[in-house]
Amino acid sequence: MDHVDRESGVDPQRSRRGFQRDDTRWMQQLTAVAAHVERTGRLPSASRNADPQERPLGVWLTNQRRDHLIGSMPVDRVARLDALVPTWAGKSGPRRDR
What we know:
It comes from Nakamurella alba. This is Helicase-associated domain-containing protein. By secondary structure, the chain is mostly helical. The chain has a domain at 27-84. The protein is built from three helices and no strands. It has helices at residues 23-40, 55-70, 75-84.
């Protein structure tokens, strides 16, 4: 059972840098990244030179890689990323199944 602080809405045991508590927003971002990959055939870029609509998706994906690498991403989110964007982990290090 989660113990969420009533004032902040944060679960202190699961709150870590970069961790998005809003599952709806997280799923919207994941869907947008998957749509980008479907449309372009590649992962979104986080480069400052990237298209203004693409860059936020690339930054989001970079944050997901970091969270996964440091072990702060919940297993269900890893599974969702694996299912919708199989190449998402890129060169970010070992995956949970290795």
